[in-house]
Structures are given as C-alpha cells and as structure tokens.
Amino acid sequence: MVVPELRAWRAARPHVVRVARSVGPQLVRVAEAVKPPLVRASEAVKPPLARAAGVVKPLVKQPSTVQFTTGAATLGLVVAITVATAAGPWDSTGQRTAERDWAASRERAGGADHGHVPGTSGKEPAPAPSAASVLAGLGSATGSAPSPGEKALAKVLGPLLDDPALGTDRAGAVVDLATGKRLYGKGADDALTPASTTKIATAVAALTAAGPDHRIRTRAVLEPGTEEVVLVGGGDPTLTARKDADGNASLRDLADDTARALKSRKKGKAGKVTLSYDTSLYTGSTRHPIGPNTNLAPVTALMADEGRLNDSSSGPADRSEDPAGDVARTFADFLHERGIRTTVPGTSKASDRAKTLATVQSPPLSALVERMLTSSDNDIAEALARQTALAAGEPASFKGGGTAVRKQLKKLDLPLKGVKFADGSGLDRADKLTADLLTALLAEAADPDRPELRPALTGLPVAGFTGTLSKRYAGRPGTGVVRAKTGTLTGVHTLAGTVVDAEGRLLAFAFLTESDPPANPATAQQGLDELASTLATCGCD
Questions:
Q1: Is there a catalytic annotation at residue 123?
Q2: Which pTM was predicted?
Q3: From 130, 140, 199, 320, active-site residue
Q4: Is 199 in the active site?
C-alpha cells in the first residue's frame, strides 16, 4: 500500500526542516551517547548469529543518511509522543491515542512497515514526521502564546461571516480559553437553531449532574415468591446483543449470569420462568417530535444496539419500532440457549422487593459523551439528557431532560438568555442556543479546575481525522488543529469547537447559520470550515 503525502505535511515541511536543523546537534550528541551500548549489544549477539547463519557479515559499516534520518525521526516521534502523553488529557476510550497513531501512520513511520515508498529501495523506511498540533495536549497551548487581537480578528472573520452564501441569519463568537475573554462576537447573543451543537450542552450538563464515572445499569431481577424474571432497563443505548460487545454492556453476559443464578436456586436444574421487561424509568412519549427517523430510535429505557436493524454502530439506519420488546425477546432466546425456558415476554414493573440476579454496566459516562460527540450519536444524546434529568430529580422525558440541562448549566453561571432546550440531540428545531453559550460551554470544559468536564472537548471530532469531520478540511490549514462539533438540519449549519492558532493559542469558537429558503449545504459547510481554518492560520496580533 502506498501512503500518499498529506498536503498539510507538505505545507508544514519547511517548519519541520527548521526544527530538525535546530535539534541536529542534540541528536548527534544523543547518537554518540547511545553508540557504545549499541556496539556492545551488537558484539554480544554476533556469536549466536554467526552460529545460526554460518557466517557473519557486517550489515552496516557506516550509517547512511537515510538510516540516520530515520533514527532521528523515530527518536523525535518518541519524544513527541512522550510529551503528548504527559500533556494529556487521555480519554477513557483511547480516542486521542488513536489520533496519535493515525497521525503517525499517515506518513512513513521510521521502523514501521507501511509498504513501499516511491524513490526508496523498498527496504528502508522513510523519515517519520511528527504531528505536533494533533499530539499536543489541550493544556499545552494555553497561556504562553500571544492572544489574537480583537480588531485583527474582526477584520479577517467579519467578511467571511457576512458571506450571503452562509444564509440569512448568522452569528459567531471566539473566546480565548486561557483567559475566558471574548475576542470576537457578531450576533453572539442571538439565539438560533443549533442543530447537533446542542450535544455540547447535553455533554456538559450530564457530566455535571451524573459525573464522568457514572455507569448505566441493566438488570435482571426475580420477584420474590414467584418465578417471574424482569429485565429492567436503565437507559443504556449502547447495550449490545452482538457477540463482540466491544467494551459495551453485553446482553449475552447478562443472560449468562442470569441463567447461572436461576440454576443455582434449583441446584443446577433448568426451569421455566415468566419473563417480563420494565421500561418505567423513562416517562412521556418515546417518539421524538421529528417522528420515525433513521437518525434516532424510539427513546426507551431498554434497547440494544440503539434499535438498529443492521450491523452499523453509527450514522443513519433503519430502526426498530419496538426496541424494548426486541431486546426482551432476544434475551429470552439467550436464556433458552442456556437451558432456561421462558414465557413470551410482556411488559411489567419490577417491585422494590425484587432480588437482583445479574447486572451489566455501560462504559463510563465520559466515554459515552465522547462517542456521542465524535459520531453525533442522537440515541446517546437523548439517553444522556434523561440521565441528567434523573440526577437532577426531573422526569426522564424530552421535557424533563431539557429542564434538567438548563438547570445544570444555570448552576455553572452560563449565559442562558433566549436559550431553549427541547431535546438532548438537537434534532428538534425548537432548540435555541447562542454563540456566547456554546463558547462558554467549551471554556468551562477547558477550565483546569473542572477536569470532570474534559470529555466535552476530547470527544470533539478532529478536522480531517475523526467522526463527522473526517471527510472535511481536506487540504485546509485547519486539518488536525480544529476540533469541533458539527450541526446540520435543512437550512441550518453550525460549527463549534476549539482551534490552536498560528501562535499556539488555544481558542474556542462557535459559528451558527440559519436560512429560509435553505442555503446550499455544501457551500454553507465550506464557509464554516473556512472560518475555523482562518482562525487556525491567524496570528492576528
């Protein structure tokens, strides 16, 4: 496989060359320091190799330029990765680790096998570039570099945001995450339809209310004095019935433990039970106001694989009309395979006296937040809004979730004038957010005193790399340095996230556009990407 050179790397090559020249003497000293141990190691293994091969020939008499460069680049990559690891934060799902590995593997990495590179013999690896902007931790860019000037930012961003191609209503804001100061604002307190950038608010509210370590439980309980087993939904949309649970709570594991517990009651003998399922944790309608939709299953406290009717794990897909009933029937099949016969499952409500037979738990809330933001997962978003409601003492419904999200953000003293939360996902056009609120949310998540909110940043898609930004920013300066949540509805396009500017300053931004008649989607998205890319390249002193 031939891995092409990234255009972003071609643009960065002169800067990397200057850095390489500046560290060249240090690398030479390092090479000289490690040379004696390497020679001793080579001498130590030479006799065994001679016996195995029958003859010993020196593989390399003198390091070639390619070999020295490869070694230097490899050492540089190791140093970069070490610094990035120290800077953190590293998320629970390993997403940032994956970004690091992905960034390194996009070019030829010294010592790694990535196939033949044109212009080489095919045996030696080419030098490995670093990806400093992607590898840098969130805290590493704040406070040291100069902050952009307000007038300079207005000069470069104003004309871009005024572009009629974006739509009839436009708003934007830019905030310095080191100081919390707003550096740019245009209609920043105008409440517009945010689409999926609503998920940033849902993330911060859920992390504040329930905490990053909270896990959602799915239980099987036995009603006392009966043979009734009740499958109790806790609101985990990532519960899976698939063989490979991939770190999620497994319905198969729950069936294993339930069957084992039932058999232990009857000294190993299989029996028959009445099987019921309980979805009473959630209240109100299960159907989102948009109606049946491939972007969201009916919102219920019990579902598996987000009610998807195919093998997908993200993006649009046909959904079950009865996710809870499907899970219960699948659970019955699993129990039957394990020697437990059941009745046809029906709805019920577990009593307070029911004895827990088995429990499985979701990944921590921090991981769910990251997955929600990266993939713009609407099912997780609605589940997190309801988890927020439960933690805040509100009904676990669309309305209760919106009330709870607002309540939590008010506790953080965030700007809520004109803001409305109608759901947790942003699919409802009744949602209204401001650029001021979105940048304030990002600033709150970046606050060193609030590490529990960090997943609201680490889960943001990376331009050109991950999630809903993986196919955007091709060749743009923002590749790898823009991390942002996208938002798209008919006539609505939004983008909110963070960017490291040309001076190394970490900024938060939010740009919202709304238009009737709808603006051209491709043109509107390109306009938003251009705004973020301009921030990435702007020194703007």
A1: no
A2: 0.76
A3: 199
A4: yes
